[in-house]
Request: fold
Amino acid sequence: MRRYKAALIGYYGFQNFGDELLLKASLDMLARAGIKSSEILILSNSNNPSSPSAASEPKAVSRWSLSELIKAFINCERLIFGGGGIFQDSTSVKSCIWYWAVIKLAKFLGVKVYALGQSIGPLNTLTGKLFAKNALKDLKFLHVRDEPSLDYANEFKLNNIIHGSDLALSLDLKANKVAQGYVLLNLRPHKELDKFIEQAQDILNNFNVKIIGAAFSPEDFDVLSKLKAIKIFKIYKFYDARDLAELTKLFQGAEFAVGMRLHFNIIAFMLNIKFHALCYDPKVKAFSDFAELNKSQDVIGNAKIELDKICEEIFK
Reply:
């Protein structure tokens, strides 16, 4: 009998707040299913991923060590990709190749592989598409979070597709808006960053209040701190899921939010803060369109129910 019921893998441990929220949502899902922390393994960039509670964190091992991966897969029953957009080649095709290799290794060692809350793409290269398609065909099922990903899944003729929502929408956040007279701004590195700064400036000109920056990664902080065109009163750093309570409090005091990061916009939506998404990527545009057609409280309740049903299927 294998020691771990599940190993979680994602873009964890890279100081990207959105991905740490996905880790928290995945751990919360497993906890609701009765899976103990001692039965979970986290494959992370470091041995200390920023999961919700240091006292109850599951064991974490380096995802970069081949020996650790082999040992992990020999000792676990399931590998769960817990949210994110891992199969894309906009940054590098190496991402597709690396995750393909992880899935193949897991399958070779008798591990069942699932993917939850995923985006597929953008895939701009033939190599990226081939590796993504070949890897995704090995999944027990693929739960995608947006329409563009569903289009890729259909193009690849994948089976066992579930069209759902981002895992972060299953988190318990209490909306208690108390506007304190500021607007939140999030920007991230991008090849067309000037265009998004200009869009943000046009929106911010409509508000005669303080502008507060919210950095969801060290790279965001660098971008925000170098801005001169937009006068930012203060910049808050959110790199760790344990900062969620502080982030919630900051959002609840905002009159409006303008941002690039997907999970910056998701948090605004969940807390009933009016927001404008700067759509640098298909997943952000897809969520912005989705938010216009749905009410946050309905979505949050449905997302948790949806995720728990999927989890029940995984562990039946």
